[in-house]
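Figure 2 data, in text form.
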Amino acid sequence: MHDWVTDETPRVVRASREIAASAERIFALIADPSLQPTWDGNDNLAEAAPGQRIRAVGDVFTTELTVGTVRENHVVEFEEGRLVAWRPSEPGEPQPGHLWGWELEPLTEARTRVTHTYDWTHLNPDDTMRITRARTTTTHRLEASLDNLARAAEQAQT
């Protein structure tokens, strides 16, 4: 299947799924940047140093991308166990305007609906490199992260 990208490409992309794990367990995987490369479905994250656990709006964590560059990720939304979102930027540079987010809705003690969002509505339209890359971030890519996250969370509980 080929994802055709046009000017009508949505600038907010979401994917959701139920995961057979507690919200607490899933959130622990998301809120610890050192674990994110193990389940990233975009094949974008190479590594992140341990000890950067996200705890509040205003936190900043760094990740190294697979292409060898570093990103500072500025946490802009946070509710322990339920919600986290960040805006990446190059170190010391303004945030270009895209956002990665995660929402967790506990369904039972051992089942959680997780929604992953990529929002690029605030990217500068003249930044053609970032716009081109943003357009390739489809629901399919977000679903890959959710599937990997589900495997990691479900295996950790067995």
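Caption note: The CA atoms of residues 41 and 57 lie 24 Å apart.
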